[in-house]
């Protein structure tokens, strides 16, 4: 007699399990558990839109309410992926429209989204509520207007750092007068001015509005008027702060902010004049998140603001904060969990900001809860890394960008091997790591050995040889995403560890020494990997040993994709066919 | 010949530049960076290696998103394409104060000459016509509007070849 859990009971148990990682494990137990799980999964996450076909996903999860998709490789953010590579949302929207009409939420990252996609979403999903597009492109404000006009229950519309063809600010007026459901609106990446009166009316009739992120075209006057109508906001992205400084303007602004007693997150602040910062003082004590990364304000003014932010958990700022400013952060912002320091002058030749490794050391020492770091700095030392690792073993994300390629420890002239060894060894919960500066193969031996929980690793201008890749692919048990640029290794390690690649989501390598011949062997050896060669020249026109410009390798159950552009070469599994361009328009 | 780890990097160096371009231009964009002099090397037979590429020209480095880079108001890079050339280039419009300076730079970069500009006939005499895409997405002839208006609205440049230039221009 077999003991079997009735599916109703299992369903009930599964209703308490939200995490997809857990649900994935559940689905592997046996066939009936797989069936019950798939029929009850509401939130579906696909980390690589080419890893599986839209039809397969729609079929497997008929009760889908929320879909999250990611498209282009991460290095697309830095222009390393040529335009037209892929990542089209359309096949997914089309498939979901046909099979999952109850879909309510769509979140897309680094995908090409057209106006047709947006119109299709608006027309197909009656209960549509949430649209979040992050780093997407390919659509215009017309598409946004379609969403605004048609989705009666729209709660969330967020355009985060998208490239949008801006045809004007009219899209905002397409929200019908009857629409009162808005909870979050983010149009910070749009250029055109929207009609402030339309925005005022929209805000006034949206009592549930909690998050509002304006674009730079919204003036200070506009901001004041909006804040008066939405004092309940918890998240605010301001418009441009550049305006003629009038005394009444300042006091109006100050008053408007002081009435926003629930404000926790503040961003925008483009062109903020230091004279206006005091208007923010009243909200500082309540702020948990502050994005000053577009504020070209000097250290003293930053400190004056930050010393009032005792509850701050997340701080994004430019290196204008200097070491001294970070020292102040370390002493005033004791709740800090995430720190990002961006370069104000990305062109190295202009760098002369007094921000050094010391700034990060201050924060590491003073902020006990610090777990996520992104830090741009001209050069670094092993000693600093050792201190950081020792003080903050709880780090989960450590991304250090030493802007000078190949820069050694500037005090000892040694590679930064020891420092990153300390990070990998000491921070046992590290999930994400970006390394930079002068690094030898040894550094990667340590990382391979100790970084057991690292899922995403980014490497640039590092290592001496194939050993580097060998160490990483034979260690790093949890590695899911590896992205590498300008490192002197290639074929041997890649082929030796081909099997490892199937345990990962993807591998990106650009400007390395991976030969076309190796790509062919790899592709033919590994049927469930797509090996994409992204190169301006047909690989066949060059000797098999010559390196290709970029490769992108990812596991997939969908086979080679059909939408590759001219410069992407998918290597056919059948050695007789060789390289092909499978393109179906 | 610069040799690192037994590999002649010049063979595998990826460069952007017109085929046959001989000189190492200072402004060359490279995506494969050779190590600079700071790097310790086992064979220290560093001969007079060509100067490292201007750091500002390394593609995608430092890794900040373009919307952050554009915040620096002192720089204004636009893409330049020329019909027939395999690669696009980029120039900083803020480096030039007027049309003659810009046209001279383009002529140097792509090794061509532009004809003489007249309001009535556009560019005559060479078969090459400089055009640009403005903020509205329209393709315009370079030179019609005052320089400041041009430099603030120019999104992209394209040097069209004579045969493709419509007779109206």
In brief:
With 585 residues, chain A is an alpha/beta fold. In chain A, 31% of the residues lie in helices and 18% in strands.
Written description of the protein model:
The complex is a heterodimer of chains A (585) and B (169). Chain A is α/β, with parallel strands linked by helices and 585 residues long. Chain A has a 22-stranded mixed sheet. A two-stranded parallel ribbon of chain A has the order 5-7. In chain A, helix 5 runs parallel beside helix 6, helix 12 runs parallel beside helix 13 and helix 16 runs parallel beside helix 17 (466-474). The longest helix of chain A is centred in the middle third of the chain and has 12 residues, at 247-258. The model of chain A has no long low-confidence stretch (mean pLDDT 93). Chain B has 169 residues and is of the alpha+beta class. Helices cover 16% and strands 21% of the residues of chain B. Chain B has helices at 9-12, 66-69, 99-110, 147-153; strands at residues 3-4, 7-8, 77-82, 89-92, 116-118, 122-124, 128-133, 139-141, 156-161. In chain B, the strands form three sheets. Chain B has a five-stranded mixed sheet with strand order 4-3-9-7-8, with no helix packed on it. In chain B, strand 1 (3-4) and strand 2 form a beta hairpin. The radius of gyration of chain B is 19 Å and the shape is globular. Residues 15-55 of chain B have low confidence and may be disordered. Chain A binds chain B through residues 75, 77-80, 135, 161, 165, 189, 293-294, 296, 342-349, 376, 401, 403-408, 438, 458, 460-461, 464-465, 485-486, 488, 510-511, 513, 536, 546-547, 549, and chain B through 4-5, 7, 12, 14, 31-33, 35-36, 38-40, 54-56, 58-69, 71-72, 75, 86-87, 137. Chain B: Residues 75-162 form the PB1 domain. Chain B: This is Auxin-responsive protein. Chain B: It comes from Arabidopsis thaliana x Arabidopsis arenosa.
Order of strands side by side in the largest beta sheet of chain B?
Answer: 4-3-9-7-8
Beta-strand segment tally of chain A: 24
Computed over alpha carbons, the radius of gyration of chain A is 25 Å
Distance between termini of chain A? 55 Å
Q: Which chains share the greatest interface?
A: A-B, 44 and 34 residues
SS strand fraction of chain B: 15-25%
Order of helices and strands of chain B: EEHHEEHEEEEHE
**Helicity level of chain A:** 25-40%
Residue fraction in strands of chain A:
15-25%
Shape of chain A: globular
Residue windows where pLDDT falls under 50 for at least 5 positions of chain A: none
Mean pLDDT of chain B, rounded to whole units? Answer: 68
Q: What does the overall shape of chain B look like?
A: globular
| Subunit arrangement of the protein | heterodimer
* Count, helices of chain A: 20
Averaged pLDDT of chain A: 93
Outline the biggest β-sheet of chain A.
22 strands, mixed
Number of helices of chain B: 4
Could you name the ranges of chain B where pLDDT drops below 50 across 5 or more consecutive residues?
A: 15-55
Helix/strand/pairing category of chain A: alpha/beta
InterPro entries (chain A): COI1_F-box, F-box_dom, Leu-rich_rpt_Cys-con_subtyp, Transp_inhibit
Main location (chain A): nucleus
GO molecular function (chain A): auxin binding
Pathway (chain A): Protein modification; protein ubiquitination
């Amino acid at each position: 007699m077999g003991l079997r859990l009735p599916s109703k009971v299992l369903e009930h148990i599964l209703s308490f399990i939200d995490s997809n990682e857990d649900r994935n494990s559940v689905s592997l137990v046996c066939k009936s558990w797989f069936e019950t799980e798939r029929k009850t999964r509401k939130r579906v996450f696909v980390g690589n839109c080419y890893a599986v076909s839209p039809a397969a996903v729609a079929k497997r999860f008929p009760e889908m309410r929320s879909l999250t998709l990611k498209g282009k490789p991460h290095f697309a953010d830095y222009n390393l992926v040529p335009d037209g590579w892929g990542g089209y949302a359309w096949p997914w929207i089309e498939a979901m429209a046909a099979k999952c009409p109850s879909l309510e939420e769509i979140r897309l990252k680094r995908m090409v989204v057209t106006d047709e996609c947006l119109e299709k979403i608006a027309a197909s999903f009656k209960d549509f509520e949430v649209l979040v597009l992050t780093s997407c492109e390919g659509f215009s404000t017309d598409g946004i207007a379609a969403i605004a006009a048609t989705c009666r229950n729209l709660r969330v519309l967020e355009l985060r750092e998208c490239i949008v063809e801006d045809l004007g600010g009219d899209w905002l007026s397409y929200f019908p007068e009857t629409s009162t459901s808005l909870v979050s609106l983010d149009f910070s990446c749009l250029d055109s001015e929207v009609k402030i009166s339309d925005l005022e009316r929209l805000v006034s009739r949206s009592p549930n509005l909690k998050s509002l992120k304006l674009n730079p075209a919204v003036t200070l006057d506009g901001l004041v008027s909006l804040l008066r109508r939405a004092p309940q906001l918890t998240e605010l992205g301001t418009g441009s702060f550049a305006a003629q400084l009038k005394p009444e303007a300042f006091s109006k602004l100050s008053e408007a902010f002081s009435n926003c007693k629930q404000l926790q997150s503040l961003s925008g602040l483009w062109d903020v004049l230091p004279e206006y910062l005091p208007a923010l003082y009243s909200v500082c004590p309540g702020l948990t998140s502050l994005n000053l990364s577009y504020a070209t304000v000097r250290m003293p003014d930053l400190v004056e603001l930050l010393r009032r932010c005792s509850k701050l958990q997340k701080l994004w700022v430019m290196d204008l904060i200097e070491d001294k400013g970070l020292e102040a952060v370390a002493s005033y912002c004791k709740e800090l969990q995430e720190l990002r320091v961006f370069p104000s002058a990305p062109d190295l030749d202009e760098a002369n900001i007094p921000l050094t490794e010391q700034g990060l050391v201050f924060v590491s020492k003073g902020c006990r809860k610090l777990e996520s770091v992104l830090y741009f700095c001209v050069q670094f030392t092993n000693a600093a890394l050792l201190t950081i690792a020792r003080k903050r073993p709880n780090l989960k994300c450590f991304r250090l960008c030493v802007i000078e390629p190949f820069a050694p420890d500037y005090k000892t002239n040694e590679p930064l091997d020891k420092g990153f060894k300390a990070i990998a060894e000491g921070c046992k919960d590290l999930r994400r790591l970006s390394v930079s500066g002068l690094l030898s193969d040894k550094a990667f031996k340590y990382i391979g050995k100790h970084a057991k929980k690292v899922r995403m690793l980014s490497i640039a201008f590092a290592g001496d040889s194939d050993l580097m890749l060998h160490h990483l692919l034979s260690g790093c048990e949890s590695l899911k995403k590896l992205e590498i640029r300008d490192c002197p290794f290639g074929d041997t390690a890649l082929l030796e560890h081909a099997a490892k690649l199937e345990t990962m989501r993807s591998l990106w390598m650009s400007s390395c020494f991976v030969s076309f011949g190796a790509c062919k062997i790899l592709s033919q050896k590994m049927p469930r990997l797509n090996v994409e060669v992204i190169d301006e020249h047909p690989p066949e026109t060059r000797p098999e040993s010559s390196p290709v410009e970029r490769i992108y390798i990812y596991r997939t159950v969908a086979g080679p994709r059909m939408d590759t552009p001219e410069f992407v070469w998918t290597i056919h599994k059948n050695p007789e066919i060789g390289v092909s361009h499978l393109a179906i328009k | 010949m610069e040799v690192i780890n037994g590999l002649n990097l010049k063979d595998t160096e990826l460069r952007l530049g017109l085929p046959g371009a001989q000189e190492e231009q200072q402004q060359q964009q490279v995506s494969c960076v050779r190590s600079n002099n700071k790097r310790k090397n086992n064979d220290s037979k560093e001969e007079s290696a060509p100067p490292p590429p201007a750091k500002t020209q390394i593609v995608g480095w430092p890794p900040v998103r373009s919307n952050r880079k554009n915040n620096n108001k002192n720089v204004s890079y636009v893409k330049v394409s020329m019909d027939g050339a395999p690669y696009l280039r980029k120039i900083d419009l803020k480096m030039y104060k007027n049309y003659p300076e810009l046209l001279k730079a383009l002529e140097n970069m792509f090794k061509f000459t532009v004809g003489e500009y007249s309001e009535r006939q556009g560019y005559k005499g060479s078969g090459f016509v400089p055009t640009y895409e403005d903020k509205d997405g329209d393709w315009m002839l370079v030179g019609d509007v005052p320089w400041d208006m041009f430099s603030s609205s120019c999104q992209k440049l394209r040097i069209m070849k004579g045969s493709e230039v419509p007779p109206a221009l």
